[in-house]
Amino acid sequence: MLRKIALVVNTDKPMALDAARQLIPWLEARSFGVLTSERAATLVGRPDLGQPRDERWAGAELIVVLGGDGTLIRAAQAMAPLQIPVLGVNTGHLGFLTELENSELMDEMDTILAGNYRIEERLMLSVTVEREGKVVFSTMALNDAVISKGPRARLAQLGVSVGDTVVARYPADGVIVSTPTGSTAYSLSAGGPIVGPTVDVLLITPICPHTMAARTIVVSGGEQVVVTVWESPGEVGLSSDGSEPIGLIPGDRVLVSRAPFSARLVRRHTYSFYDVLRRKLANPGS
Fold this sequence. Notes:
Elements: E1 4-9, H1 14-29, E2 33-37, H2 38-43, E3 50-51, E4 62-67, H3 69-79, E5 86-90, E6 100-101, H4 105-113, E7 118-122, E8 125-131, E9 134-141, E10 144-149, E11 156-162, E12 165-172, E13 174-178, H5 186-189, E14 201-207, E15 217-220, E16 225-231, E17 236-240, E18 246-248, E19 253-258, E20 263-267, H6 273-282
Parallel strand pairs: 1-2, 1-4, 2-3, 4-5, 5-6
Antiparallel strand pairs: 7-20, 8-9, 8-19, 10-13, 10-17, 11-12, 11-16, 13-14, 14-15, 16-19, 17-18
């Protein structure tokens, strides 16, 4: 049975803070240890629970995320190397990745904390930028790595290779390399397919390509995808999971492959990706 729980709270959302104020005494009454960030602990009136940044996950067996999909993605990035399971509670709008709605939290926690759940492994990306043969940036992503032009730039010339094989050269606004999890995010908006979240593949989707022949390419999850900036009349940047872009210059290579760790999401046994797909995207009113 779980004994120590860490809370990741979106401190910009009043509903997330209210959920934390309700959940903390409920957990403590059942003899669970509770950890959270110093900021969240202060805002919910429990500064004694706040932990320094490098220690707030120490000994935690489960991470409960109170926020939306963005908060869960950031928590998954941090937890993947530690392999700590993450339970998402939606206090935002869409909540496509989260497992519980805020209204379900207190009714479902007894079941979750008794260990009556399953772990869903989600592929994550390792993203590296090479410049003149040297690594100048690296990160991990749950959804996608997006190489795209700036708001005032004209089309960029982007080359795409899979392994050692050149696949395409796109005059385009950009290229998205996504996981199956990210197939329902920016890649979907750019015309890419929806892929079941546990399928072992990567998706390569051009953004507004100036050609009639460009389509999403789906490759094995074990492949390395390389996007090369060949030419750009203006700024080009790399954004991972919606992060602030870092600047790229002609000649830069963005290497994207499976990360050595997967995100571990807590799911109830009744969870169905396709049910969530229907409710959240296909028919939100049902």
